[in-house]
Amino acid sequence: MPSQPTHRTLAVNGIDLHVVEQGEGQPVVMCHGFPGLWFTWRHQLDALSRAGYRVIAPDMRGYGRSSAPAGADSYDRPHTVGDIVGLLDALDIEQAVFAGHDFGAHLVWDLPAWAPGRVRALMQLSVPRTPRLPVQPTVGFRYLASQHFAHVHYFQEVGVADAELNGRPREFLAKIFHALSGANRYLDCWEFSSEGNGYLDVLPDPPALPWPWLDEAEFDYYVTEFTRTGFTGGLNWYRAEDAVWAQNETLHDVPIEVPTVFVAGAADPVLEMMGRDPFGAMRDLVPGLVGAHVIDGAGHFVQMEKPGEVNGILVDFLRGLPG
């Protein structure tokens, strides 16, 4: 009989971290982004555990059933890396493979420099490794907002996006999941001005559920969790961007030598914003890169939109690791 996911809460790095585990074998830790939960990895938990791996998917700091400190200063790199190292220590794991998506990918890209010796390999989704920005992130965010609506800028002012999204969680989640999927072109949001618009004003209306990659029960899980918690914890990851940038001054561009695979949807707006060769810089910054895969018909939530293709790539990569 295949194993079933188990839930537990660990006291880690001064917070409670809710963790879902499935399977036995070499450990794989999967870090979600915004607006995600451990549940974002549900298809990978099953497939990778069946392939013989111990899959560990936490609700990241600020999300789901994990603690959500109130201030953005609790979401900088010492805190977020401390959560991951504390998780490994609590589970008596010396070294793991790490997967990241969205803000989880941002964090996982930093782990080899911040926690050397704890990272066996990386499996990164949707967000390529890019060179360090020459200016504080919020300087760039303000410039974008002067040209068009930019959620990264809109999220910075404490209380504004919180009130909008917390007040309409079902509507927001349906809109953002659709907008960032392969069924939509997210950058059409840039046709709107920042002046007078909230995020819900610029996101397209979604089709009715079920979708090919998300049914009503799956969607309701997200709605239930975010209705209970609100979105402030997730927004604080955006608000910590300047601090993370400063803390990475000498670490960001340290070459990543561990074996690494990258996967993204062909319709992911992150790739579209990066131009004709989104992987050019990553090849230089990640000497350990063994493959970069682009999956047709998928957008930003590639692991949910095309789980079969993603799982096949990840399992093949894991089986090819030395040792």
UniProtKB/TrEMBL annotation:
Residues annotated as domain AB hydrolase-1: 27-127
Hydrolase found in the keyword field: yes
Keywords per UniProt: Hydrolase
Record-linked Pfam families: Abhydrolase_1
Gene3D superfamilies in the cross-refs: alpha/beta hydrolase (3.40.50.1820)
Superkingdom to which the source organism belongs: Bacteria
GO molecular function: hydrolase activity
The protein's name: Alpha/beta hydrolase
Organism: Rhodococcus olei
